[in-house]
Amino acid sequence: MKNLLCGICFLFLATIGHGLDQVGKVVAVQGVVRASNSEQEERVLQKNDDLFLGDTLVTDEGAKGQIKFTDGTLVLLIPGSRYSVDNYVFTHSWASNRFIAKLHQGGARIATGLIAGKNPENFELGTPNATIGVRGTVFEMNMVQGNLYVGSSSGKVTVTNSGGSLELGAKHYAEVPSGNVAPQPLSIRPFALDPANFTPPQGGTAFASEAGASAGASNGFAWGPAAVGAVVVGSVVGGTVAMATSGVQTH
C-alpha cells in the first residue's frame, strides 16, 4: 500500500510539473501535425491539445497547424514546416518574460502577443538565414530551397546579417539567400509569401490586419494591458533568424 501511494504521489507531482511547462494550445489542425518533446516522445496533435516548452512541431505535406500561446501570440505553420519552442517564460514579472523559438524549415505566419509587445528585446525567432525581431505586428516567412522570404503585413521588419541590413515597412518583402548575403528588397510579393499559403485551417483564428497584440490577447489566455504599436525590429545574425535578446534565462 505504501508503494502504491508513493507511486500515485509521484505521478501526481510529475503531472503538475509538466503542466507548469504548458505554453499554449492548438487552435486548429488540418492533416497530420506532430509534436515531439526533448525525449523524442511523439504525439499527433488535435484541436485543444496543449503545447509544452521544448516541443518541436512538424506539419506533414498538406497539413497546417495553428497555435495560440499563453501570451496571445498566434502561430500558423504551413505544410512541410518544423518549428521548436526553445525557451518560454510568461509571468507577472515582465522583465523575466521570454519567447525563444526557431523555424527550422517551411513557413509560418505570426501575430505577436504580449511578450513581444511589452519586451520586444526578449522575443527571438530563429531561422537558418536570419534573425527577426517583432513587436505588435503580423508577419510571414518561408524557407524555400535555402532562401528565406520575409514580409510584413503591418508594422516594420528589420532584417540584418553579416552582409547588411534592410528595413521593411508594411506590405514590403525581402529575400535572404544566406546568412552572409545582404537581404534583398523585392518589388512585389514573392510566390513563397502568397497569402493562399497562409490561410488558417478550418476552425482556426483569423489574423488581425493591425498589430497582433490586442488580437492575440483574446481567448482568455493573456492578462495585463495589451501591447500598443506595430513595430518589427530584428536582426539576421550568421544564418539564424532570431531576435536580439539580453539575459536569456533557460527554463
Which tags fit this structure?
251 residues, mainly beta, Jelly Rolls, nine-stranded antiparallel sheet, seven-stranded mixed sheet, 3 helices, 20 strands, disordered C terminus
Give the topology, please.
Layout: H1 2-20, E1 22-30, E2 33-36, E3 42-44, E4 50-52, E5 56-59, E6 64-69, E7 74-77, E8 82-89, E9 98-105, E10 107-111, H2 114-118, E11 123-126, E12 131-132, E13 138-144, E14 147-152, E15 157-161, E16 164-168, E17 172-176, E18 184-186, H3 212-216, E19 235-237, E20 240-242
Parallel strand pairs: 9-11
Antiparallel strand pairs: 1-4, 1-6, 2-3, 2-5, 5-8, 6-7, 7-10, 8-9, 10-13, 11-12, 13-14, 14-17, 15-16, 17-18, 19-20
Would you give an account of this structure?
This protein has 251 residues and is mainly beta. It has a single domain, classed as Jelly Rolls. It is built from three helices and 20 strands. The strands form four sheets. It has a nine-stranded antiparallel beta sheet. The longest helix has 19 residues, at 2-20. It starts with a helix and ends in a 9-residue tail after the last strand.
> Briefly, what CATH class?
Mainly Beta
Q: Can you give the helix content as a percent range?
A: 10-25%
Terminal-residue CA separation: 35 Å
CATH topology: Jelly Rolls
Mean pLDDT: 77
Number of E-state strands: 20
> If helices are DSSP runs of H or I spanning 4 or more residues, what is the number of helices?
3
CATH architecture: Sandwich
The topology string of helices and strands comes to HEEEEEEEEEEHEEEEEEEEHEE
